[in-house]
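In response to reviewer comment 3 from the previous cycle, which asked for concrete evidence that the modeling workflow produces usable outputs, we include below a single protein chain processed end to end. The sequence was submitted unchanged, and the resulting structure tokens are shown without manual editing.
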Amino acid sequence: MAYTGCIGGKLVNIGLENCTNKGSTLQATGHISVSGELYAYVGGLAGQGYWAKNCTNTVDIDYKGEGAYVGGLFGYCPQGGSYTMSGLTNHGNIAGAQYVGGIAGSLKNESQSYAIETLTLESLENTGMITGTDYVAGLFGGLRVNNRHDVTEVQASDLNNRGDIRGRTYVAGLIGHGYSDSGRSQIKYFSSTGRVYGDPPTHELFAHLENIQLVP
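The workflow returned the following structure tokens.
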């Protein structure tokens, strides 16, 4: 099974606002195979999401399989253009394989535009325990913002994690692997108090960031 969520399986150009997902446990197995890569797409709200504001997940997610992209709210968010994700909270315990996060397993903003486009992340929090293999973090297992004309940027603030994180590589309190092709991208006002367990590269905040500035 792929594209699994309690509100929707795959949301395309559909945002969510003021949503709360309550319950006990979402269990999922299986994957789809694309060019030899395995994908699960499992999230508390949706397996694949778009933008979201003021949404909360309290459901535990237990994915038993080898597919990538499992998250507290969304498994995977592929976007383009300027948009905002704000006021998002995960309280559930999330278990997956690769690219696992309290908010989303992976968030990508990729565009072909010549205009400056901004991905804005504000007031994101995780309190649940997050476990997986590679690219495992309290908020995003992976975060990638790129544009062929080097004009897309990420502006993130008030990022917090209070859950324990367990994985193998690229394990972190906030972001496992982050990349931006713009020198203007930055993250400010962030904290993580949960314990982080994994092999290098592992970090209490960010396992790997490229072209993203940290502003204390």
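The mean pLDDT is 92. We consider this sufficient to address the reviewer's concern, and the full set will be provided in the supplementary archive.
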